[in-house]
Design a protein that fits this description.
The structure is a homodimer of 300-residue chains.
Chain A (H helix, E strand, L loop, with lengths): L4 E5 L5 H9 L6 E5 L2 H9 L5 E7 L7 H10 L4 E9 L3 E4 L10 E4 L1 H5 L2 H7 L4 E4 L3 H10 L4 E5 L1 H6 L3 E4 L9 E8 L9 E9 L6 H10 L5 E8 L7 E8 L5 H11 L4 E9 L4 H13 L1 H4 L3
Helix pairs in contact in A: 2-3, 8-9
Chain lengths: 300, 300
């Protein structure tokens, strides 16, 4: 039997690989990395790999428009099958025995160093900040090059290049999280606590179009967890909304709402229903909700 | 008389500087650059500079969450006073006389090279892609270092470092635009074709909260141009919506809608009313609208 194949935004040592390892056992699957989210998604669409993990929101790996564009506009046969939310934890990594005081160069991606600027200014005001194409490349340079250099990167990058964590959590905003999604060709079955993602295309931006859509959800008690408007950049004057909601497309109220919406928009593209991940903030909110509504909790 | 001071996301040669030069004459103002959007915004808030230009959406300079967070959560005395929309035009830049065939290294920011990946694969498949902290740093390295290197960057970077454009428009998505905003402490007067930005904070994410807000706008015929939901990351369970709408806060219908919304949300933070920029897509849509509604055009 051939192993399932999973693509991810590489190189090895990225947060995306860290996210993938939360849901896939590397012993029982082949993991293949790609240089961009778009290439991961196109490889799944063409059937070169079974599924792919890509960053969706607030990633240090760069823009997520690449993910949304590839998923929403460049392919039409893919669905999101799972999601993973990771805290963005960046550490200062160095070779064994390196002291903070002797570091003269710090390697990382510009997006990552920008998130650690305050920490760097306070603790390494004289170190030169040198750009790398990924946090993994940065860790690799520290591992193989001479000099008193350190890298800013995630735990996995330290493990892959046998570096030590010199300082934990050097980001200025330790509460930051990144949301990753698994993309595949087969929809996921209901898991009991699901989320559905969709894109609604509207022919003209006019007052009230969005209102009609939201009413379909609201009147059925469906909770939205995300909404974002964007020009489609494909058809002039066409706008679209990215919507995430609580529930599975196999739930009656969700499928009814979608059918009603389809009747009065240019197009509705279902991006899949999948088990809802629990981020740190989500987890705390859910715990609070559980406490304040224990009576309801039993019946869910 | 002292010159007005404008901060921008630097270093010199960035798209943000290009955007600033569209609205400010460098002869009659002092331009000061900062390493992050956050630092530009905080400098304006503290009164160190008069106004600041920062990227807001879809920038090649990196994430815009930094802009929104600093403006929405870290300061409370600032308003957006203007906006500029620029096409993201990235060119291959080299020293005078450099031929495409002899280029062995390409310098740029990871976010910028990611946008040119297809072009690079086709035209420079063997060139080594080397990371820089900004497109300007990349241009500087090409200008001052030996070897057959080229940089990917905007026109202004070529001008600042006396480089030639070897190839125009090397991005894979030439339709990409970046939206920049000018941030200041004094609100802008109505200009006739304005836009208003605000953030609405909602105490609990419940079905219907957003619907109530949108109804206030829709019932008054106010057109929204952007809507985006986000956790505030400040108070657990609190969500907020970033909303852009057509009109000025001094328009009666806009101020009425805002007053009504304020009555039933946790907080509403007005980010200012300012003249609406015309992007490429906007310009074409507007032209089409003007044609299809010439009768109305005369009265506006």
């Amino acid at each position: 039997m051939t192993k399932p194949t999973f693509g991810f935004l590489g190189p090895p040592g990225t947060f995306t690989q860290e996210a993938l390892l939360q849901v896939v056992d590397p012993e029982s699957a082949d993991l293949i990395y790609y240089p961009t989210p778009e290439e991961v998604i196109l490889a799944v669409a063409k059937g070169e790999i079974g599924q792919g993990m890509v960053p969706m929101e607030n990633s240090v790996e760069g823009t997520v428009n690449a993910t949304i564009d590839a998923l929403g506009f460049e392919t039409d046969n893919l669905v999101i099958t799972n999601e993973v939310i990771l805290a963005v934890r960046l550490h200062l990594l160095g070779r064994a025995g390196t002291n903070l005081s002797e570091i003269t160069e710090v390697y990382s991606m510009p997006v990552a160093t920008a998130q650690c600027r305050r920490w760097l200014r306070e603790h390494l005001p004289n170190a030169k900040v040198i750009a790398a194409n990924s946090t993994a490349e940065a860790a690799g340079r520290v591992a193989y090059e001479k000099g008193s250099a350190a890298a800013i990167g995630p735990n996995l990058a330290a493990q892959l290049f046998a570096l030590e964590v010199i300082e934990r959590d050097v980001t200025d905003h330790p509460e930051a999280e990144t949301r990753f999604v698994v993309v595949g060709r087969e929809p996921a079955a209901p898991a009991g606590r699901d989320k559905t993602s969709l894109i609604v295309f509207i022919a003209e931006d006019k007052p009230g179009a969005l209102l009609e859509i939201l009413t379909e959800f609201s009147s059925r008690g469906i909770n939205l967890t995300k909404i974002e408007s964007r020009p489609t950049k494909r058809v002039l004057g066409e706008y679209c909304f990215f919507i995430d909601l609580e529930g599975h497309v196999k739930d009656d109220i969700v499928s009814e709402a979608i059918t009603s919406i389809e009747a009065h928009v240019a197009k509705l593209r279902l991006l899949g229903s999948y088990p809802r991940a629990i981020g740190r903030l989500d987890a705390e909110r859910l715990a609070r909700r559980a406490r304040s509504a224990q009576a309801r909790a039993g019946s869910e």
